[in-house]
Amino acid sequence: MNYIRLNLQMACEEVNGVPKKRDFLRWLYGMLSLFKKQVEITIRVVDEPEIYALNMMYRGKNQTTNVLSFPCNVFEEIKLPLLGDLVICRQIVERQAYQQEKLLESHWAHMVIHGSLHLLGYDHVKIKEAYNMESLEIKIMNELGYQNPYYLK
After folding, report:
1. Residues linked to residue 87 through DSSP beta bridges, in sequence order
2. Which residues pair with 58 in a beta bridge?
């Protein structure tokens, strides 16, 4: 049985256009149903200064990014359902959707799926890992009714 407890934090100045909690849950359920897990996850929607600071602090990257994933693996031996935290930058998601001519909702869904796969241990550093992760992202997006997120017009 799939059960998702979502802690949604709106830490951005402008919330117009940010998906509702039910949207985030729909995307998570569509994705996590493949893994048969009960999970607890936090999604924090932030502005550029916060994502910049977190990216610098935790990844040593002197730039902003669209999504950061912080897996919770400290309690593996206790078997708690804590999956981890996603931090998503509202402005970057909106800007990328516009620049890539994607529907905003679709790009939000992709960021949630992409970040959640990182929480589950997927990565895209090596070519084979990237292929596996992107293939899974495309499959999940299609099952949710969205186009291939890597197809650019």
Report:
1. 44, 68
2. none
Q: In what order do the strands lie in the sheet with 67-71?
A: 3-11, 38-46, 82-89, 67-71
Neighbours of 103 (CB within 10 A): 11
Is 88 within 8 Å of 67 (Cβ atoms)?
yes
Name the CA radius of gyration of the chain, rounded.
15
Task: Write the CA distances from 138 to 14, 31, 37, 49, integer angstroms.
Answer: 29, 11, 20, 30
Q: What is 3-143's CATH number?
A: 3.40.390.30
Q: Report the length, in residues, of the chain.
A: 153
Q: Is 107 annotated as a binding residue?
A: no
Cβ atoms of 41 and 86 closer than 8 Å:
yes
To the question of whether residue 110 is assigned a binding role by annotation, the answer is no
Residue with tokens 């650019």: 152
Task: State residue 73 phi and psi, 5-degree precision.
Answer: -120, 15
Task: Please indicate if the annotation marks 114 as binding a ligand.
Answer: yes
Task: Give the global pTM.
Answer: 0.92
Q: Return the residue matching tokens 């950061």.
A: 68
Which residues of the chain fall short of a pLDDT of 70? 1, 33-36, 74-80, 152-153
